[in-house]
Each structure stands twice: as C-alpha cells, then as structure tokens.
Amino acid sequence: MSEMAVTQNDLRVAPAARAPGDEVFKWLTLVMALSIFALIILIGWELFEGSKVALHRFGWHFLVTKDWDPVNEKFGALVFIYGTLVTSAIALLIAVPISIATAVYLTELAPLWLRQPLVIFIELLAAVPSVILGVWGIFVMIPFLRDHVFPLLQKWFGFLPLFQGPIYGVSMLAGGIIVSIMCIPIITSVSREILRSVPGLQREAAYALGATRWEVTRIAVLSYAKKGLYGAVILGLGRALGETMAVTMVIGNTPQIVASLFAPGYTLASVIANEFTEATGRVYLSALFELGLVLLGVTVLVNIGAQLLLKTFAGPTVKPQH
Amino acid sequence: MKKQILSILGGAALLAAPMGLNAQMLINGAGSTFDYPAFTKWFEAYKQIDPDVRFNYQSIGSGGGQQQLLHQTVDFGASDAPMTDEMMARAPGKILHIPVVVGGEAICYNLPGNPKLKLDPDTLVNIYLGNITKWNDPKIAALNPDVNLPDLPVIVVHRSDGSGTTFIFCDYLCSVSPVWADTVGKNTSVKWPVGLGGKGNEGVAGQIRQLSGAIGYVELAYALQNHMTYAQMKNAAGNYLYPTLETVSAALATAKVPDDFRFSMVNAPGDNSYPIAGASWVLIYQHFKDPARGQKLVAFLKWAVTDGQKLSEQLDYAPLPENVQQRVVKLLDTVQ
Asked: Which of A49, A68, A188, B239 is the least crowded, having the fewest Cβ atoms under 10 Å away?
C-alpha cells in the first residue's frame, strides 16, 4: 500500500507535458471505477425494493428473529446470519495458514522447477465449479469426515461444547471445510503475488545481518507484506461469505443455532438458493429478498470490521526505505 | 404492379417455407422442474404430430412459473402446487389448471440388512414430529413383528430446497394428522420440527444412503431409477402398498377431483390407492389473446393428457386414469 503511495507521488512530481490522451484516459478509468460503485448501489437498491413488504412487516425484528416458517409467514434472519459467520470463520481458520504457508513456500523455499507446476495446480483448484466440489463433498468428503476425522476430534476435544453432540457428517464444520477449499486458491494466489513483490534487497539485508531462513521470512518478508496479506485474506472472506452451492450440499440445511460444529446449520446464501425458485407468497418472496439485503449488509460490515481490526492490531508496519 | 408484388411475396414465401422458421409458432412456457423431463419427451414426439409448432420451456420452478403466467410473459405456466385463491385473484383473467403428470413419493430408509418395512400414517407423522427417535420404538415394532429392528437413532431427512415434493408430503401429513396441520402445515418449504435438509432428490437420497438409520421422502421416479429401499405405506382403506405407477394412478382414479382440478390426491380412498402422491399442473388462461396460439397449445395439451401419457410413463410418471383424461379434455374444450 505505502509503496503504491510513494510511486503515485513520484508521478505527480514528474512535470510531464499533459497530453489530451492523458485526460481522456483519466476520465475513462474514473468511469470504469465508478461503474463498480453504481453496480453495488443498484444491487442494493433492487434488493431493498424487493424486500419492502418484509421490511414493512417485520422491521428490525427480522434481524433478531430465529423463526423461519413459510407456512405461517414468520420470517427472521438470525439463524442464517449465524450460520454464515460460523462457516466463514471456520473457512478462514483453515484456509489462511495453509494459503500463506503455501505462498511462502512457493516464493521463498521451493526449488525453481517445482514452482510453476504447483502454481498451475492451485489455479486449477480455483477453476473447479462449486457444484462439482459440492457433489464431491457429499460422496467423498462427508463420509471420510464422519467416519475418521469427526470421531477423533470428538475424542480429543469432546470437552468443548464445539465438538459435542451426534455426528451426522453434514454439518457447519463440513460447510466451513468445503468453503476453505474454495478460499485457498484465491488467498494463495494473491499472497504469492504480494510476497513476490517484496524487494530482493529486503531479504539480502536480513541475510547480511546473519538471519536464518525463518528469520528472513518472518522479519524481512512477512512483516513487510503484512498489509497486502490482510487484503488477500479479506478477498478470501468475501468468497466465503457468499459461497452458495457447495455449502448448501454439505451443511445439512437446518435453521438452528447450536454450539456444536457437528450440528447441521444454514447460511444466508444457501437458503436463498434453496427456496427462491419455489417461493410463491408475496411476503415469503420479499423475506427472501431481505435475506439478500442482509447478506450484502453482513458482507459490508464484516469488511469494515476487518479493516478496523487491521488498523488497531496491525500496528506500525515496517516502512519501506528506498 | 400488383402482380409484381404478389410474385415477390410468393417468391419470399417459397424461400421462407423450406427454412420453416417464419411459419413456425413458438410457444413459451415456464415452471416446475418436476415436469421438465416429461415436457422434453412430449415436445420431441409432438414434432411428428404438428411440425408447425415449437415449444420453449424454462424449468425455473413452480413459483417462477406462476409469477410469469401472472405477468403474461409466457403462454403457459407449470406448477406442482395448485395456485392459491389469493394468487388467482391477482391474475388478469381466469386461469385453468390442467393436470398433466402424476407422481408418487417413496418413503426411503437405510437400515442394516435392508429389512422390508411397513409404516402407517401415525408412525410416519410421529417420526417427522420427532416423537419417535429410535428404530426399535414400539410403534414401528408393532407394525413390523417379523423384523429385528436395531437400536439406532432415527435420522429424519427432508428436502431443503423449496419443492412440490415437500408440498405433497406435507399435504399428506396434514391430511392424516391434525397435530401436523396445526403445528407445521404445508407449503413448498416448511419449518421442520426435526431433521436434516438435502438439496433435491439426489441430496435427500445421498444422505439416506450414507447415514445408517436415515429415513426420507423421495420422488418415486428417482427411487425406482436408483433402486432405493422404500416402505409399504398403509393407505386409507387399511392396505399396505408399495408405491408403483399402478397404485399411484389408482389413487387419482379414486380421489375426489373438483371441476377446477385444483385437487389434492393424498390419502385417496380405494383398496389399491397409494396414499402419498400428487399431480403437477399446466396453467393457462381460459381466454387467449391470440386465439391461434391458444388452439395450438390446447391441441398439444389434449394430446399430452391422452396419448402423451404413454410416453411419460416410460419416465416413471404415473399415467392419468381414463376418467380424469376425459374430464381434462372436456375442460380444454372451454378454452377460447
């Protein structure tokens, strides 16, 4: 980030003669950038329009109501918000260490001949359609987790409420794991690019001070690239919050709030995908629209929260010295 | 001058005729995914009968089918649940319900050793209400004295996506249990007291296959084609029946069908009527804006509910019984 600021300043100082093409280019890019804002606002507006009936009927209670009862037209988003946050948290807990470790290996440690093939594999993983991952989740991942992984977790960590209760296989934990698989390629690719952009001088300086390989990676590379890596994680988070198909297939689709990660749950995106096609009542449809609005809101809030967290906890980053 | 124009037009007609595109009428429909395989088969076969008409059907779900019909963006809708009075009141014209296919639902389960089970309505309701939690529950044992039932927890599976299958299943539970009708009710999605949700027939079937002790409802066609184990259900006459195309057809033959065809055929009377079954309807306006289109569509529907039934039977839909076929054709005669 700070590096970018420096280069921009350099450009502004450089007193090049302004060609008319530059002006056109500037406005063109501005329009492109604004079109993204416009798109988000338009989506938000449409969702708001669609959810008017539900907004009017349930008001703020929609956010704190646990009921989801299409027969009696009682709707609330709380269980789905909970499910979305829990699966995303699990996904990031798994994906972030794996992705960053992979990126470090790829840029710092891996022999050169191995780097490109590994990168290709990671990019292939990103190209797997989520419905395929979901089917794989049902028929391969779930039985494996249910018969081998979950019982072990229960044996070791069964004293925690998180790992108690009956094991069905389909669960919030399974949902989180499948989302983590989808986040890994994104976080890894972006992290790798960021680590690659760390100047070689940084590393050489650390080596010159007698640092070991781990110390070089920690001090010279990771802390230098910290902010960029957080950005990579936030991109992954966006993917996790909105993931629909694969999660729907493995999460068990039960609207409830329970401490156990082995229990089935439900996410905002899943319930919309599940129920939108066959919903007929006006209030019902409107409530589904409102869930979409809530998802948009949750995404915005979580992103803002993550940014604030960065500001407070990241502390002063090592300023690059040029 | 006139002659010239005529000859030009004639030439154009000659050119257009072999291409066939301009002469053809395209009829648009949208709705139920349950009907989609039947429609595909019918549209293909109907090319031989009337080459001048082509169909375009979007299987976007029953809700979408009803909406698009209300907004008159399609010529016909298709829905697994009849339209409510509230929806009908919002329509700009009178809507007819034309039953086109009938399907049953199998109660599938997964128990060690694949025993053959019998279930009655009371037991099924209590399983889905969460009152029966073990397979060796006295209620299940009383119905199956010859089966050695395991001490396994009952894992209830239901559809998570909104679906006509859920509507029919809950319609059945409502018809046999006032408790279900009061506490849960019926819709394309409901607030389930217990259980896991699977997406689509394949999702429910997948969970049943994988979880020992699971039970769930699956479309009969899917259960037949995937060789699943399913239970004999006790019908209204007290007989235990497997769902088959015959027992499902028999249910419609004996069900009470009102003149507007917005019927429910669950728990139908008759010795050979399987109790959990439902129809899917094509929805059309009684008055077509474009009478030529209306005629073509009506001709197709008449064919579909009579001769077409033999084709849909190949896809494991139960055929409409003779008495219903005749009544539907009569209803179609009223379309203008």
From this structure: A49
